[in-house]
Design goal:
- This protein folds into two domains: 118 residues, Sandwich (Jelly Rolls); 82 residues, Sandwich (Jelly Rolls), CATH 2.60.120.
- The chain is 11% helix and 40% strand.
- It contains one helix and 16 strands.
- The strands form four sheets. A five-stranded antiparallel β-sheet has the order 2-3-8-5-6, with no helix packed on it. It has a five-stranded antiparallel β-sheet with strand order 9-10-16-11-14, with no helix packed on it. It has a three-stranded mixed β-sheet with strand order 1-4-7.
- The protein is globular.
- It starts with a helix and ends with a strand.
Length: 226
């Protein structure tokens, strides 16, 4: 009886989610509604299993298609209509439990630009077993789907050598010039706010500010089953 009760609760939750998503889609009766990953202004630039990295850009005066979120998402803000955002982060994990449909517009004058890490999985219990090594800073954000770290590097300053047991990416949140150097010497230069470098699991690397102004660096990882 108890298992039947749990099954009924699960069915009701699913039906509630469907009803909510359908109600939201009905707000756009004459428009095409697409999934987030199919919305053309949310451009996929990298995929690793259940993780999708999207480069999201909406020009002044433009508007996205109505699109549906049904996955946890980590947002790194590069710029909004009012100006630069310095790589601050935000997150929405509610989408994984209840789908949400909306569209995004940009009244300007600035470019709407974010880097979005989408996690198409259930998340993992919080644990020290998948913590990165070599990080000098604590995570600014940590949940079953993501971790996010932030560095402020002075000119000439470097991080320690670090590695992640989860896939991760480094993004330049501010203007400036930074190098992301692998242990084998291969280097990726980040020369503009919003430029990024993907790091595979267990890849050792170091970040260096090679410019003459301080830089804001965000390091995000998508937590996968270990």
């Amino acid at each position: 009886m108890f298992s039947k009760y749990l099954s009924l609760i699960g069915l009701l939750a699913i039906c509630t989610g469907w009803h909510s998503s359908f109600a939201q889609q009905s707000e756009f009766p004459s428009e095409k509604v697409v999934h987030l990953l199919d919305e053309p202004r949310h451009r996929p630039v990298r995929q690793h299993g259940q993780l999708y990295l999207l480069d999201v850009r909406i020009k002044p005066g433009d508007e996205s298609f109505p699109h549906t979120h049904d996955q946890a998402i980590l947002l790194t803000y590069i710029s909004l209509a009012g100006g630069p955002q310095n790589g601050r982060v935000g997150v929405n994990t509610d989408y994984a439990a209840e789908a949400f449909t909306h569209k995004v517009s940009n009244a300007g004058p600035g470019l709407f630009h974010i880097m979005a890490l989408v996690h198409d999985g259930p998340g993992q219990p919080l644990s020290e077993n998948d913590l990165p090594s070599g990080m000098r800073v604590d995570p600014e954000l940590e949940n079953p789907w993501f971790r996010s770290y932030r560095y402020q590097l002075a000119p000439g300053e470097s991080t320690d050598l670090q590695s992640h047991s989860n896939p991760s990416f480094v993004i330049l949140g501010s203007e400036g010039l930074a190098h992301v150097s692998r242990e084998d010497g291969v280097t990726r230069e980040l020369a503009h706010a919003g430029e990024w470098a993907w790091r595979e699991q267990d890849s050792t690397y170091q970040i260096t500010n090679v410019g003459d102004t301080p830089v804001a660096i965000t390091v995000n990882e998508g937590r996968l089953q270990q």
